[in-house]
Automatic annotation (TrEMBL):
Cofactor(s) this protein requires: Mg(2+)
Entry keyword annotation includes Magnesium: yes
InterPro entries listed in its UniProt record: Cof, HAD-like_sf, HAD-SF_hydro_IIB, HAD_sf
Coiled coil: none
UniProt family annotation: Belongs to the HAD-like hydrolase superfamily. Cof family.
Descriptive protein name: Cof-type HAD-IIB family hydrolase
Presence of keyword Magnesium: yes
SUPFAM superfamilies: HAD-like
Length: 274
């Protein structure tokens, strides 16, 4: 019945240290060996997620930058959608970001993560892949080949940015939260759900045979697209309110996805989580 599993990473497949635990890795590998297809769907950069996929040891499709990029298991790009150059240049200006200097501005290009200051605390999210940023003057970037702009800051500052974006750009942008302190901006035709549909069509799998897992607001379309969506018990309360009919499972810090997969696929739980 289930042919494809699509899963978010942070707050979902990864533990509280933003890493993969052995129980999850063993479960996912076993399912792939039995013929189940996997899609990793995340706001993270492709280069970062490719490293995580390698640790999982599976041939997964990668939906990255919240759907702005889709890579096949052989790393071929099968879908890409960039922000317009002029929009990117506007998104990094003080009129949008604020003049206080509290918000960290990030640009996701095809093969690079650009940031406007050194923020080594962010590298804790990338322990498995070793992915690293490059500090640049984001206001000097020409705006080309950017899949996503990411703002990191306090909730009040991000709420003001969200208001400014809505006022200036209306519905021409897709603006969402991946974490309470992470506001992400892509072009309007981007979402994890749309990207998942690209993969489903490519593999000729009906959404009715797709299982999906998520925990935050950028997972809404992913969960709405899959025939069998599941929400983490640690999910954002706003996501729970938005999708009250989606079943909730265990926590990410207790390998909740792995345990649910073993139930769905009737795998005897002979492994002991670490």
């Amino acid at each position: 019945m289930y042919k494809l599993v699509a899963t978010d990473l942070d707050g979902t497949l990864l533990n509280s240290n933003h890493q993969l635990d052995p129980f999850t890795v063993a479960t996912v590998r076993r399912l792939e060996q039995s013929g189940v297809q996997f899609v990793i769907a995340t706001g993270r950069h492709y280069c970062d997620v490719a490293g995580i996929r390698d640790i999982l040891g599976i041939r997964a499709y990668l939906v990255t930058s919240n759907g702005a990029r889709v890579h096949a298991p052989d790393d071929t790009v099968v879908h890409a959608s960039d922000l317009p150059r002029e929009v990117v240049r506007r998104l990094v200006q003080p009129e949008i970001v604020g003049t206080h200097g509290r918000v960290i501005v990030n640009l996701f290009a095809d093969d690079a993560w650009f940031i406007d200051r050194d923020a080594r605390e962010l590298l804790a999210f990338h322990q498995d892949s070793g992915f690293h940023y490059r500090v640049i003057d984001t206001r000097a970037h020409d705006g080309s080949d950017i899949a996503k702009v990411l703002y990191i800051g306090e909730a009040a500052d991000l709420a003001l940015i969200e208001e400014r974006l809505a006022h200036e750009f209306g519905d021409t942008l897709y603006v969402t939260y991946s974490l309470p302190d992470c506001l992400e901006v892509m072009t309007a035709n981007v979402s994890k759900g749309r990207a998942l549909q690209v993969v489903l069509e490519r593999l000729r799998i009906d959404a009715a045979h797709c299982v999906a897992f998520g925990d935050n607001m950028n997972d809404i379309d992913l969960l709405e697209t899959a025939g069998h969506p599941f929400m983490m018990n640690n999910a954002n309360p706003n996501l729970i309110a938005r999708l009250p009919g989606v079943p909730r499972i265990g926590n990410n810090f207790e390998a909740g996805v792995a345990h649910q997969l073993r139930k769905l696929f009737s795998i005897a739980d002979e492994l002991t989580p670490t």
